[in-house]
Amino acid sequence: MEAHADGTLKTTADGVVAKVVGKKQAQARPSSNSTTKSQGPTKSRFTYLPKDEYKAQMTAYRQKLQSAVEANKQVQAAFVECINTVGTTSCGAFRQSALPDQPDIRAAGDPAAAAAAPAAPAVTPEQAAYIASARLHLAAPKPVVGPPPEINEWGMAAVGYPLWLSAEGDLDPAPVADSVFDLAVSLDARLVEVVFDMGDGHRVRCRELTTRWTRSVEPGATSPSCGYAYQEPSLPEGLYTVTANAVWAIDWSINGTTGSIPFYQSASTEVPVGELQVLVR
C-alpha cells in the first residue's frame, strides 16, 4: 500500500501497518519480538508472619494477658483488704503486674504476602480496656498535712492537735480516648476516695479532699471533711510515715460495652509528732 499525505495507511516492508500524518510518519508499533523493561513489584518494609505462627503468638498473648489481668485482680483485692483492716501497720506501696507486650506480627524480608494481612487479634473488650488503662498516666495524689509542722517554732506536729488531711495533684483528670487492636476505647478516671495510713496503726478514709488547711483557719479548728489527731508522739524515736492510698475507678466504654476497672496508687510523706508540756511555776 502506498503512503499518502492525507493520512491514509500503508504497509511497510516488515508488514507493520503505520499511519502517515502530513509528511511525518507515526512511529511504527514494535514487533512481537521486541523487548521492554518490566518493573518489579513495589516492596514494602515488612511482611506478616505465616498464619499458623501468627495464631500461635496471639493465643499465647491472650493467655498471658488473661493471667496478668487475673493476677492484678488478686493484688487489688489483697490491697483493699489491707487498707480496710484495722490494726495493720502499713500496706506499703501498691504494685500491679505488668501486662504483656503486644506481639509483633511483622517479619523482615520480601513482603510477597503483605497484601494478605491477618485479621486483627481477637481480644475481649475487658482485655482491651485493661491494656488501655495500663497506658494511663495518673499521678498519685500526694498527702498534705496541715498545718505543716515546719511553720511552728518546734518544727513538729503536736500530740492531740487537730490536723487537716488533703491531697494534691490532678484529682479530676480529663477523659481520654485510646485504640487497642483497632478497638476505640474511651476512659474516664474518677478518684473515689483516699485512705490515709497515719503510720501509727490508724487509718482515715476520706472522699472529700478539696478542703485544705490555710493560715486563715482558726487555731485548733478541726477539718470539716478529713482530719486526724495523733495520740502518741513519734519523737524522739523517729517520724510517722503518712501514706495516701488513692482508690480510682476507671470507667471504660468500647462499642457500647461498658465497665469499670479499679486502680490504686500510693504516695507518702513524713510527719514529726511531739508532745508539748507546760511547766507551771
TrEMBL record:
Domain of life: Bacteria
Biased composition (Polar residues): 29-45
Region (Disordered) location: 1-46
Biased composition (Low complexity): 10-28
Protein name: Uncharacterized protein
Source organism per UniProt: Friedmanniella luteola
Organismal lineage: Bacteria, Bacillati, Actinomycetota, Actinomycetes, Propionibacteriales
